[in-house]
Specification:
The chain is of the alpha+beta class. The protein folds into two domains: 28-80; 82-153, Alpha-Beta Plaits, CATH 3.30.70. The protein contains five helices and four strands, in the order H-H-H-E-H-E-E-H-E. A four-stranded antiparallel β-sheet has the order 2-3-1-4. The N and C termini lie far apart (114 Å).
Length: 155
């Protein structure tokens, strides 16, 4: 009887994994389910990573576009604003930066640029496109803010 029960048990264990009903219920395919879940998780991570990379590329393209627009605007303003009200000229760059910062605190659009053919850095309080407007503003500036201000014309 003991041998018969062992033989039945061995036959049952041999036949049981090949049964479709048992296989579908998942008693023996736990590894397959785990493997499928891991594959699905890996696929979702791959998709999320590719979406993130695409978003990073789009952000980089947008930043490059904005930078080029900003640089073009700065170049246009630099070329268009050729009449500058100068409030100081310095050989030492630190002094020029400090002086420009002082006027920025007062609300002016102070800029620093090199004087052509010289070692001096000029600190400009305002820049204007038209000569007439620049002269009028220079006169007002000399009367109210700094008497030593002068005009520099970029060529």
């Amino acid at each position: 009887m003991r041998h018969l029960s062992v033989v039945i048990l061995i036959a049952f264990l041999t036949v049981l994994p090949s049964c479709n009903f048992i296989r579908e219920k998942g008693w023996f395919n736990k590894k397959e389910r785990t493997l499928a879940a891991l594959k699905a998780q890996q696929e979702s991570i791959r998709v999320a990573d590719s979406v993130r990379k695409a978003q990073e590329r789009l952000v980089a393209i947008e930043n490059a576009r904005l930078d080029s627009i900003r640089l073009a605007d700065e170049a246009r303003l630099t070329l268009a604003s050729r009449y500058n009200i100068i409030i100081g000229s310095f050989i030492t760059p630190e002094y020029a930066r400090a002086w420009a910062e002082e006027y920025r605190k007062q609300g002016y659009d102070a800029k620093i640029f090199k004087m052509e053919g010289s070692r001096f850095e000029l600190v400009s309080a305002e820049s204007h496109e038209s000569f007439r407007k620049a002269v009028n503003r220079l006169n007002q500036f000399q009367d109210t803010v700094q008497i030593d201000a002068w005009m520099y014309i970029k060529r």
